[in-house]
Design brief:
The structure is a homodimer of 759-residue chains.
Chain A: E1 53-55, E2 62-63, E3 66-67, E4 84-85, E5 87-89, E6 105-110, E7 129-130, E8 136-139, E9 142-147, E10 152-158, E11 162-168, E12 172-180, E13 192-201, E14 204-211, E15 218-226, E16 232-237, E17 259-262, E18 265-273, E19 278-286, H1 290-300, H2 306-321, E20 324-327, H3 330-343, E21 348-349, E22 356-358, E23 364-366, E24 373-374, E25 376-377, H4 378-381, H5 385-392, H6 394-410, E26 419-420, H7 434-443, H8 451-462, H9 470-476, H10 487-507, H11 511-520, E27 528-529, E28 534-535, H12 563-566, H13 574-580, H14 584-596, H15 601-606, E29 615-616, E30 619-620, H16 639-653, H17 669-679, E31 681-682, E32 690-693, E33 700-704, E34 710-716, E35 724-730, E36 733-734, E37 739-741, H18 742-746, E38 749-756
Parallel strand pairs in A: 34-38
Antiparallel strand pairs in A: 1-5, 2-3, 4-7, 6-12, 8-9, 9-10, 10-11, 11-19, 12-18, 13-14, 13-17, 14-15, 15-19, 16-18, 20-33, 21-24, 22-23, 25-26, 27-28, 29-30, 31-32, 32-37, 33-34, 35-36, 35-38
């Protein structure tokens, strides 16, 4: 394949002009918006606090008092198959498996003012508008759609903290901008704790909303400016009546009354427009105050040049993507750069331009020497997303580490984050995988880490008595299933985390800590059942739990993975795992079975968070505990099976289409797996400095490192069938191992894979 | 009467030891706690942010969906006739007619832990305890009571921002401190918007509560320390279930779990105690953050010496009371110093020790060069309370003016405060009487006022188009009753306020403003009906409303006063009022009738906020619009009738007993009326520099002014029957007028009344 062919490809989803492109043109934010990807198609800059994106429905959280499971589809607000848009909200998680956010929905309309969204089957029952994918464009930091009902062209872009809207109206004397603060994602009754809004003048509105969602005590402040004065405005307050309204009766609070507060608040702003008139809105958010939101707005988006703001945002993306530029076939280019895009959305900046942010203690803190981040979905992202940042964005990752340490310092539990959501801990999933992120950064000599503080925080977290079976784990050496559920998953993950702490302690010459945690890291042995050959739930009386179904994904003892998958979760001691499982030959056979067995339909019905596309045999790529598995063949002496398998996973699980993700992208972890694998290596055990080799899907890659050095990857004789690595050289010398070290990357150099179609 | 006799009196309510006293010993905080006074008996320092006081019931706000009118008795949390105490809360208004607050109830108990207050008739159904007034002591900044059920001695004191508790326990291994954040005053369903608490360590708890009460968006942050570690703690969360609690199931949140949040939160802390062990608590509040609350605590109350903190607080009171020390008979001493105490509770400091406070825009502001205050019950306090501060506490009043200007600057309505409640405007009552306070301070040359800004704020407020009939008032010259209720009261009060602005403009040489508002100040003429001789509601078609009942206190057109009382509300132009009403003779006859007419029982049933004790004839002293009336005889040439009447009002309306106040004390206005009248003069029209003379009830008074000068008042030949002033001299020269000027006080000097029993 000639290199030049990679420079010729299709532009966008619907046109066919071949020309040289910018890297951002390969990104399709619509990938993952159909089925289970849970990504959003809207505008955001890398790691931006604002994710301004369309919402395509407002399902009730409960129907007849029961959870409405269709709500789950709307974790990111948008479902590709929907026919209507209800508006554009400012905050979205990317790819999560539970959700929150969707703050401050804005919808432009024309004609009779309607303040309810209406229903998908009867859009005219409310303010929503039908739309067509033919009139929709999604690009990094830019989203455009025509709202056909109103003939309004909606365009969105964003800076880090400011969402920017540009609405092109038809001629009308009844143009409306609706600001709906009732809307939200996972919007169950009583989620909205309080909303406060003020019309400061005829172009500026401020306020905040506090919600009790996945973040229990979460507040978003805003400042919203219009490019031209509204002629009239009003509020709708659907809250329960405030008692002693007495002297408020002086006022008509619904119309041109500048302040409102309650739990269910909507606002509307009226304009006259000539055909083609644009109403632009800048909407800044802050975790601290409306004053800070206004400062964010004035600092980041002082003018009204939409195109300029958009171009600046796209330039940020171009710069990020160029840090690991590749040549590859068209599908790979699209998958790869979109994966890069999805890997660089979360975590998100959680700090105002003046350095202030809200801490876990709900106080205002000032970040000294770092940018504060939130949205740490650590059970997912410790695996590959943070390791990826350690290569491509070490400074940013060091700030994320500082943010985790700040979280620890503010924590009433004296624990590092488990899942950090906007000054809240939501405790999602298991383990204490912050320690993996911290250890990986320390072990890899990422600059700017307070190493002693990091180790202290890890140790304190791992010694917590009352966290999720940890007391039992510390005394028994395993979590007993009769005392604490998902006990196998927890025991295995704690053991891995403990090894991370040991690695970190070794690096810092803390022998005492090393001894303690290296010992703990062996606890995986305690849940291995030689009779079944699986990691298996054990009871507090020492016996293994009966009955036991190693196929069942709902089996007690496991979470988001069955015994087949979870039994392979000893990333820090794969050699010993292989021994436990009967040696290399039997281990390889076990892996082969995993990837090839035929499963009944009932299996898929019960497997959480992923579509059937996310499964190969019994290997569940759509959930994270398996992400290292394909690489384990290496340790068993069958690297060619790793090579074939990772290529197969890349091919089957990632497609450059809206339904192209086989499971939740999980804040970039699914995408980070793809990036590593496409480059030809993977961090099987973060906290180690090794990346295990697989089979690159790129032709070439150039990593531009922050230290100014360059690391190149070349796959000679790359091709669809040439999935095997005949040999690999590093800086011209043939590798006699199936891994490379972190420092070999940061020193700069050239890794060359010689590809072949022979095993 | 010999002077020395004033130094001999009864100590406290229940003992009879005669000895020289400190001024604070004359204060009985229980005055006004029975019936309608709405004062509280607990601990506070002058203008303190904390008012730590017992609560004697927790009535449901609604019974069967209807307002429970008994709740009204609990505006200050305490009713003297109650037999049980439910605990001690940290914030209370003094004497208001509607209410709020009651934040963070603390109750010490022994034995089985109970977390509900129980009912008054069955105290053991909850944690409340019976108590006896025989085991209760109330002093400035000190309250003590024995909780008989538990044999716990409870003692309370406070600094400006810290409530200090000292509980002396019996021997027990089950001593509890309950922190009930569900409790509140006017505690209707959904009033509690959000509560957040953290156990920082085994002696420190922090958190906040947001309420939607009379202050719509009001948050109080706290930091609470115990003098010794608790052995165990827990939370009770009565909130509706948070959705997606998923991974919170890792924890038992009810027991030793350090963080909780929700709408209905209670906490408990357990101790072992030996007999006589004291558990002390310092509970600091902040309008800004828990960090600031902790700083307030550490700054104001660093140690654990309860007695020292109490003595320091009482010293503050002693200093305040000594600013206008008197000699008088015992009843007068008790009434007077208690009135002084009640006049110096509200407004309250609303700012942390670091100068930060929450503004009306809900942002954190820093007060530069002033102390920020809230609790401005301006419809009441502009009349006498702020004028009293202008004499005795001009610096503090200048800070209150600065606080009002800050409120104006932060107001979305661009209005000065009407009723300022903790970063909220509650719009209570009518008029825009901030302008009176500002004008009075400007006219009286109070230092430290930004006069130009003050005038601007007054003018903007008075020109507001959509405030409470003001648009009609500006175009028609009166508020038309068919467009906006209480139209007579509003027209009259707007006219007075406008005159205040004119006075201020004159002082600042702003002729244009003077002309505009002096003209507006004449609008009182437009509601005078010559045919009835009363100020009477007028319709937008110019005609007077029919039918018309000048006796009815519910009559449309008036609020908190009938036509008899309100028709006399032209404090700024009494001479013209007298002309309108037919000249001096007829005017005097009108006043005589007012004070002497016999009213049917039905009248009392309908008159708001006051008991029968608050009425003389048809003169309603318990509501404020009449407060200047007794002094109007002066202008009609019958000063002896003023003299007799004010002495009569003082005698009938003020008693040194729990039921001694005939109506709501209204944040000190009722008390300030008493102080002025007892000294022998009254500010009939604040904004003028005149104080009209009455008849002093003191023997002597010495005003120690901030400028270092002293103004003395002497009533020669004072006595119960000698209510008439034969003559008065100022600095030795006989006065040929029935008023003195403000500067005559501030220059220092001696005012001598020569009293007689002859008219």
């Amino acid at each position: 394949m000639r290199l030049t062919s990679f420079l010729v490809f299709i532009l966008g989803a619907h046109s066919a002009i071949a020309q040289p492109q910018r890297l951002t043109d390969y990104v399709n934010p619509l990938i993952g918006t159909h089925k289970m990807g849970h990504t959003f198609p809207g505008a955001t800059v890398p790691f931006g606090a604002v994710q301004l994106s369309p919402e395509t429905d407002t399902l009730p959280y409960e129907v007849n008092g029961k959870y409405n499971k269709d709500v789950y589809k709307y974790c990111a607000g948008y479902q590709y198959t929907d026919k209507t848009i209800v508006g554009f909200a400012h905050t979205h998680f990317s790819g999560t498996g539970h959700s929150d956010l969707g703050d401050f929905l804005i919808m432009p309309t024309v004609g009779k003012l309607q303040l309810n969204p209406g229903t998908a089957d009867r859009p005219k029952s409310g303010y929503r508008s039908p739309f067509s994918h033919n009139e929709e464009t999604a690009r990094p930091d830019y989203y455009r759609v025509r709202l056909s009902r109103y003939n309004i062209l909606a365009e969105l872009t964003a800076t880090t903290r400011v969402g920017v809207h540009q609405y092109t109206f038809p001629k009308t004397d009844s143009a409306h901008i609706i600001l709906d603060a009732v809307y939200g994602i996972y919007n169950y009754p009583d989620k909205n704790v309080w909303t406060f809004m003020r019309v400061e003048n005829d172009t500026l509105v401020t306020g905040y909303r506090q919600t009790n969602g996945w973040g229990r005590t979460r507040t978003v402040y805003f400042a919203m400016t219009f490019s031209r004065p509204f002629k009239d405005y009003g509020f709708q307050n659907g809250s329960k009546k405030q008692v002693y309204r007495g002297f408020w009766r002086k006022f008509d609070e619904t119309h041109n009354f500048p302040e409102i507060a309650g739990t269910q608040i909507k606002a509307w702003f009226d304009f006259n427009t000539r055909a083609g008139d644009q109403i632009k809105i800048k909407f800044a958010i802050s975790p601290v105050s409306t004053a800070n939101a206004l400062q964010n707005l004035q600092t980041e988006a002082p003018g009204w040049n939409f195109k300029q703001i958009k171009q600046a945002g796209q330039e940020l993306w171009e710069r990020e993507l160029s840090k690991a530029a590749i040549t590859a076939d068209d599908n790979t280019l699209r998958n790869y750069y979109t994966a890069m895009y999805h890997s660089f959305i979360n975590p998100t900046v959680y700090m105002d331009v003046n350095g202030e942010y809200r801490g876990l203690d709900q106080n205002t803190h000032k970040a000294e020497g770092f940018t504060n981040y939130t949205t740490f979905s650590l059970w997912d992202t410790y695996r590959a997303q943070h390791p990826l940042l350690n290569i491509l964005q070490p400074t940013r990752n060091s700030h994320m580490v500082a943010s985790m340490l700040a979280h620890y310092n503010q924590s009433a539990h004296k624990m590092l984050p488990v899942w950090s959501n906007s000054a809240n801990e939501n405790w999602c999933m298991i383990g204490y995988h912050s320690v993996s992120v911290l250890a990986d950064a320390v072990v890899k000599d990422i600059p700017g880490i307070d190493r002693a503080a990091a180790l202290d925080a890890c140790v304190a977290t791992a010694r917590h008595k009352s966290y999720d079976g940890l007391g039992y784990y510390r005394t028994l050496g395993y979590v007993p299933e009769d005392k604490n559920g998902a006990s196998v998953s927890k025991t295995l993950e704690y053991a891995y985390d403990d090894w991370c702490i040991a690695r970190m302690a070794a690096k810092l010459n803390r022998q005492d800590i090393y001894n303690e945690f290296m010992l703990r890291s062996l606890n995986f042995r305690n849940v291995f059942d030689p009779s079944s050959g699986f990691m298996r739930p054990r009871l507090s009386n020492d016996s293994f739990k009966k009955p036991f179904d190693e196929m069942n994904t709902d089996e007690p003892g496991y979470i988001e993975g069955n015994a087949w998958n979870y039994s392979l979760y000893v990333p820090h001691a794969p050699d010993e795992l292989i021994q436990l499982m009967g040696g290399k030959r039997r281990f390889i056979a076990h892996l082969d079975s995993l990837f090839t067995m035929q499963l009944p339909d009932s299996f898929f019905a019960k497997t959480e968070d992923i579509s059937r596309d996310g499964i190969i045999g019994n290997y569940v790529h759509g959930n994270e505990p398996s992400h290292h598995i394909a690489y384990l063949y290496n340790e068993a002496g069958a690297p060619h099976k790793t090579q074939r398998q990772v290529r197969d996973i890349m091919k089957k699980m990632y497609h450059p289409t809206p339904d192209g993700l086989g499971g939740n992208d999980d804040c970039g972890q699914m995408s980070a797996w793809y990036i590593f694998s496409a480059l030809g290596f993977y961090p099987v055990a973060p906290g180690s400095d090794q990346y295990w080799l697989g089979s690159p899907s790129v032709a070439t890659a150039t990593l531009h490192l922050e230290n100014g050095k360059t690391f190149t990857i070349t796959a000679r004789n790359q091709g669809d069938k040439n999935v095997y690595v005949q040999k690999a050289t590093l800086n011209g010398r043939e590798l006699d191992r199936t891994y490379i070290r972190h420092q070999e990357i940061t020193d700069g150099g050239a890794l060359v894979f010689y590809m072949t179609d022979k095993e």
